[in-house]
Design goal:
This protein is an alpha/beta fold. Helix content is about 40%, strand content about 15%. Helix 6 (about 115-125) packs parallel to helix 7 (about 140-145) and helix 10 (about 230-245) packs across helix 11 (about 255-270).
Length: about 350
């Protein structure tokens, strides 16, 4: 049993303040049964107020758990997604007295073999895992985790939602709304920069763009959709190709902010004024969008909150054998962030599609 937290507050202090036994506090902290909702709420409020932090090493000696949550990524770099996932997941881990460990699955040689994935999962000391896209849908990884009987929660799976608990937001609805916002500004030649093939967010965002254009009676030419990879240079290259079209688009919707910032750079290179001649919008609300010039109109995706919710769901399901059977899902809201990179279509542009 823990003797003290990091700030000198002991489990006895928590029990005394809450008016319950030490055993009850221990059950609450370890997500055990036997403590009602009112007692749990009171104990957790006191834990937060007093700044109590369980001694994770001492708890792990009990042999029941290692108090370690893993967050698995395909790549550790590129856009701000990783940092936001770490932020939210760490918040939830700290509240519950767990540590977070980030692991990159993809190596320089690409994805490991199914056998290597199985060996990695078996050798890991994780009590539970958070899977980020596109690993959320990797069949070999999911099979290895399930064979090892490790609980997991997926962020934004693209398919087979009934397989596990998951957290998501409506990427398709957000992309549709972003596209219609450009249409309402008078834009008709709206081009799109797609993300990596098979990535859940990329698939849904492109679908939202196409749905909006179809609703407005536009059959999108293939030349209006340029391929990107969620990294800035791909947005730059895609925009150069789009600006070479005759006629060129009056608006570009990039599937994430990094590509949108690359689009702004390409427009500057070719002396295309944004937003006077070209509107550019993105998706994610990454920090770089606020400091780009002009500041980027985008969609705020609650990445940190999604990761935090995923860890809460994961830890809350420990010890419950029905965890996978009674699939949970959490949907978080998005919002449009309007800045200066999008404006009304140029007055000399004919509005017919």
């Amino acid at each position: 049993m823990d003797k003290s937290g990091d700030k000198g507050v002991s489990i006895k202090d928590i029990a005394r303040e809450a008016g319950v036994s030490i055993a009850t506090v221990s059950r609450v902290l370890n997500r055990g049964e036997g403590a009602g909702p009112e007692v749990r709420s009171r104990v957790l409020e006191i834990v937060e107020r007093l700044g109590y932090r369980p001694n994770v090493s001492a708890r792990a000696l009990s042999g029941r758990r290692n108090y370690l949550i893993g967050a698995l990524f395909l790549r550790l770099g590129g856009y701000h997604y990783l940092g936001e996932v770490q932020l939210g997941a760490t918040r939830a881990c700290r509240r519950a007295g767990y540590h977070l460990l980030v692991e990159q699955i993809e190596s320089a040689d690409g994805m490991p073999s199914p056998e290597a994935l199985a060996a990695f999962v078996r050798s890991a000391a994780f009590d539970g895992l958070i899977l980020t896209p596109p690993l959320s849908d990797d069949p070999h990884l999911l099979a290895a985790i399930e064979d090892a009987a490790i609980p997991y929660v997926r962020l934004a799976p693209n398919s087979d939602e009934a397989r596990s608990p998951y957290v998501w937001m409506d990427d398709q609805g957000a992309a549709r709304e972003q596209t219609l916002a450009l249409w309402d500004l008078g834009h008709r030649r709206i081009a799109y920069i797609d993300g990596p093939a098979g990535h859940r967010a990329a698939v849904r965002r492109k679908a939202g763009y196409l749905a909006a254009m179809t609703e407005r009676g536009v059959s999108v030419p293939s030349a209006w959709i340029a391929q990107g990879d969620f990294f800035g240079m791909s947005g730059f290259n895609a925009t150069e190709a789009l600006l070479a079209l005759e006629p060129a688009p009056t608006a570009i919707f990039a599937g994430n902010d990094e590509m949108a910032i690359g689009a702004l750079a390409a427009a500057a290179k070719h002396r295309v004024a944004v937003p006077e001649r070209l509107s550019v919008v993105g998706f994610d609300n990454a920090p770089g969008g606020e400091t780009s010039w002009p500041p980027l109109t985008t969609v705020h995706q609650p990445i940190a909150e999604m990761a935090e919710a995923a860890v809460d769901m994961l830890i809350g399901g420990f010890g419950d054998r029905r965890f996978r059977a009674r699939v949970q899902e959490r949907k978080l809201d998005y919002r449009l962030v309007r800045r200066q990179s999008a404006a009304r279509a140029p007055s000399d542009i004919h509005l017919a599609p």
